[in-house]
Each structure stands twice: as C-alpha cells, then as structure tokens.
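General statements about sequence and structure are easier to judge against a single worked case. No coordinates are needed to read the tokens, only the vocabulary itself. The sequence in question and its structure tokens are set out directly beneath this paragraph.
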Amino acid sequence: MSTTQPIGRIIRELAKRDPQRPAITCGARTLTREELDRGSNRLARAYAELGVRHGNFVTIALPNSTEFHLAAVAVWKLGAVPQPVSWRLPARERREIVELAGSTLVVGDLDPADHPGVAHVPAGFRPPTGLGDGPLPERISPSWKAPTSGGSTGRPKVIVDGHDGDIDLAQARAMLMEPDDCQLVAGPLHHNAPFTFSSLGLFLGHHLVVLPRFDATAAIDAIRTHAVSWMVLVPTMMQRIWRTAQEEPGRFDASSLRVVLHSSAACPPWVKEAWIDLVGPERLWEMYSGTEAQAIAALNGTEWLAHRGSVGRPMSGEMTVLNPDGTPAPPGVIGEIFMRAPEGDPGYRYIGAEARSHGDWESLGDLGWMDEDGYLYLSDRRTDLIVSGGANIYPAQVESALSEHPAVLTSVVVGLPDDDLGQRVHAVVQAAPGTTVEALLDHLADRLDRYKIPRSIELTDEPLRDDAGKTRRGAIRDAAIESLRGTERVSGRDMKGPSHA
C-alpha cells in the first residue's frame, strides 16, 4: 500500500475529516481546513486562467500571511511548482530569479513592468466570483518546492527539489511532528526552513500559527495562547526570546512545547545551555543541513551535553570530512564537510549554479570535524559565507552590487561577530575621494534585500586586492574587528535586524 498522497488530496481529506479545525492563523485572520481547501481551489482556477500549467514555476513574493499558504496550495493543486522569494527583494534581483526559473506567474505587490511577458497577481488578489471552489482534477507537481539562494558567485540560484508533490508524510514524522501539533512559524516563509517545516506540518494536519514578522514578545504570547507544541527557530530568535523571558519572568510558558528545533546558523553555547534550562534537554533539537538536503544531521540537548558543540550525527544520508587532497580526515582533524544523499533519493538540481563535488560526494563549503563517535562539529560556517540572524549572505553578491557604483574601485565584504545576530555584514570599500557611506547605502538599497546591506562600511584609499584579484579576507576581517571596537562607521538610518527576523 502506498504511503504517499498528492498534496491536493491531503488538503481535501483533512478538510473532509474536520472542516472547522483551524489550519492557519496569522495575526487576526484564521483559515479553517475547509476554507483553505475551497479557497485554494478557486485560486488555482484563477491561476490556470492566467496560464499556469503542470510543471510551471510560480514565484510567490508575499509576506508571512494566510495568503502565502493559500497561494502555495493553489500552485500544488495545479501540479505546478511554488518558487518563494522575499517580498522585499529589489526588482532587479527578483527579475534575475524569475528569469532563471522561467516563471509563468508572479504573485505579490510589484510593478508588472518588471517582468514583461510574465502574468502577475497582486497581494490580496481575489479570484473572480464565477470560479468554482469544488475539487480539481488531481495533479502532482514534478517538484514540490524551488527555493532560492544568493549563490557563492554573487548570482542567485534556484534549488529545485527532486521530490515531487506526491508527499510521503514519513518526512514530517522524521522531523518529530505529530498530527495534532500546533506549530509556531516564526521565520519568513520565503526561507527554505520555515517554508519546508510549515508545509510538512500543514500536510500532517497542524494548526500553523504564523507570525507576520518575528517579535520575541509576540512569539512568547503565541506559544501560550495557542498551546504551541512544535516550532523551529534560529539562534538569533532563541537569544531574543530568552532575553525577553528573563526581563518578564512568568510570561514564557514552555509547558505545551514538545519539540523546539533550531537550525540555519551556529548556536552560541551559552544560548544552547539557556534553552536546555528553559525547555529541557529532551525537547531541544538541533539540525544541520542545507537547502539541498543531501544529508541531515541532528541531536537533542542530552546528546549535546555529552558532545558539547556538536551539530549531531547523520540521520539521513551520509556525511564525511575530507582533507584538501580528498582523503578522509581522521577524527578530530578539520577538513571540508561533504554529503551524500541516501540511495534512491531524487535529490535536487540547480538552476544557475553547479554543485561542488568530489566523486559522488557534494559540499556546501563548510569546514568541520568529526569525533570518534561520528558526531559532527563545525569549525567555520563556510569560509566566506556570512550567516546573520539565520540568513545566508554571500559576500560576492554584496561586492558585486557595490562594484556597480561609479566611485567604487573595489570592495571586500566580511562577517563580523555580533552578540545578537551571530554575524553582521561589514564592507571595506576602496572608493574615489569624496565618496560617502550614505551614498553607498542608497546605491545598495535599490540592489539588495535589506538584510544583505552592510551594517557598517569602512572607506579606504588602499588597494584591497592584488593584481590577480585575490584578497586576504581573514586579515581584512581581523583589522575591521580591531578598528571597529571603539568607533562604528555607520549611517544614522535605522537598520536594526535582518528583514526576516
């Protein structure tokens, strides 16, 4: 007997089983299972009238909302592929992604002229009243998601999941989800982890409580009000929630929480310990993987206390640490982390990039080591990649945008330590005399999503690269840390917090 079901059937059966049960709550709006099913049927018919067909990509550029999930379910019901992006993306970056994916439709508030030849519906779109909300012919998406990444080359890439829309709910149970869970969705739905986990929860029958944007107090109140039992956070969120809980004793009630999962960035040990005290070691889980999901490592708080600093052991696929010559690194020796998907796994494919590989092993560029028991430890979250508040920021993309300013000769972008975000973006820019930080920030505002824009910019008239274009990024980072200890060279504009947190 098959253990998989098409997404459209899953949503329909959940609605039939308990039509008035809440499916998604965001702010003051709640969609029941029946409203989600019927509303997505009408929306799917509207998308079909705009030309969406089986296998087409649909770019969803919506903020966190019930509307986001309605759009995704409508896309799945047509056998098409949801391709989420930040609703705050500058037109240029979104245009590159839409062109890469070859999207048939873009959903969100934007200028339709940005995407000539591509159909568009705005946020708040209501299907024509004449369209029915009854069941649709059953179709299966060839890929159930296609998130994006900035890419190490500075160009965006689309990561097309190899799993189709015939969903095996064992995926959700592998993430420690249960059918009756209430899931807090704290992160932005255009990011892979919140999109993936909330979707799997939706398929399993969760009540999703979606924060319009992350706020520590709102998260604490939602956990108590809705008796949240499952949630995924990034370390920045964990730190902010913990601090708020310390400032307002008694407000945070962890009694309903069954699983707290964190991922997407290295977690400071003190934050980990604080949360083990807050919710208990058996309920706190960490996961290490990438959007590509060749392999997944995980561990709970009890294991972490016995293997302090580890991100876990592989629970899906394989992981190994290789020396520069491609030979396996002994336990305790730092090398590059490579992953291999389980046999028969459909994997993924890139649009706009090539995988870094060694034989049938692939690397995301992270460095680390394994202990004698097979637990993995990260020594560096990729040599160049900046992880700020759980968001991946590629220096090459920021440097590429800076290079387009006529006064900029060259630039080097690095991540500096930050107590709240883990890392923050800092740029050292060699520019013509008279160039101001404010002018560079104005230039970047039209080219980059807000969380990628440097929080500090240091101007210099010294060359940053040699004749071969090489730079000593580590030395520049160390010098920036030293020079910024006393004085921050930043503009006065409000740039608090990445756009997703």
